[in-house]
Specification:
alpha/beta
Amino acid sequence: MIELEGLPELVDPVLIAAFEGWNDAGEASSGALGHLERAWKATPLVALDPEDYYDFQVTRPIVELTDGQSRSITWPTTRLSVARPPGVERDVVLLRGIEPNMRWRSFCEEIVLLCQELGVELAVILGALLNDSPHTRPVPIVGAATDPGLARQIHLELTRYEGPTGIVGVLQQALGTAGLRAVSLWASVPHYVAQPPNPKATLALLRRAEDLLDIPMPLGDLPEEARAWEHGVDELASQDSEVAEYVRELEERKDAADLPEASGDAIAAEFERYLRRRDHGGEG
């Protein structure tokens, strides 16, 4: 267990979390956390002791040259940092980690304790999964919430998945059991282009988190990177007739399943983002 003394007193903090590994198709969710850490210049808070949760033969430490000669070891772990987004009167705790290899319940208990010590009452956990969604359409975002009213408020399409789960599902339940509100947001990554990075899925997760938290997300170059990614996949698909035909089938299936009101909801959400960014003086 880590020492809790010395943690700062935060203002109405919310938690945004993501984990590398099984929950992170295309590295879309961990990419979102890394993007926020850099854009908001997050200040490190604390790191969990990796000895308790990681099998180093499975999740190996990384050796690096720090000055061209000296070697340093970076151990796989889960780290928390804090940021105050520009123009926002609350703090955001960023949790970026690697799915642990063991002691998941103790791992989640430690994170819950940290959230309680920091005053976090709402957590947003990001994930990404492989799916048969076409890369040419908006990235579907589904999720789960410990508070059904919150899910309705943000028009969250609830997942009906049943089966093996990862640390995202386990942590969300642990947070809810402890009395904290927790929402998981899952981006669907096309299974035929699963290799990272996937800036389009990362962008979709950040926009959905913005809708939920009413905090403008710094998008930076992500919109341009998402368009370039989609264009690159278009070119690759056009070189293989079977892949191109498969993508067309997915598009037809997706378009047939989308209800007319879904487009209206998307337009309304985009307009609300525009107003939010204008009011906060944020980027477009």
